[in-house]
Amino acid sequence: MADPQAPADFTVAMNYVEELKEHRPDLWPQFEGYITEYRTPPRDLDRFHAQVKELLKDEPDLYARFEEFFPKSSGGQERERQGGGNAT
């Protein structure tokens, strides 16, 4: 049974992983490798996204779904992405 305390984003991510494995099982090992590299040790999020984008270049729908659950920025990074909050 799923953990009722688990965030909805986790469920979305797990559903995505299952979809990727079913739709493009040939891409799964490389995708998993990128995630492993990103997590241990942490690395540049833009580079991670670029790698996944290249991997999924022939699957734009899968890449768009990836960006839904793994955006390039979140929380405190959002201000930086939108121009550093220097607007007057």
Concise synopsis of the structure shown:
With 88 residues, the chain is mostly helical. Helix content is 61%, strand content 0%.
The outline comes out as globular
Helix content: 55-70%
Regions with little confidence, pLDDT below 50 for 5+ residues? 1-5, 75-88
Q: Mean of residue pLDDT?
A: 78
Number of beta-strand segments: 0
Approximate strand percentage: under 5%
Summed up, the helix count is 5
Order of helices and strands: HHHHH
Structural Rg: 15 Å
The main sheet comes to: none
Structural class: mainly alpha
End-to-end Cα distance, whole Å, is 50 Å
Assembly context of the chains: single chain
Task: Pick out its properties.
single chain; 0% strand; 61% helix; disordered C terminus
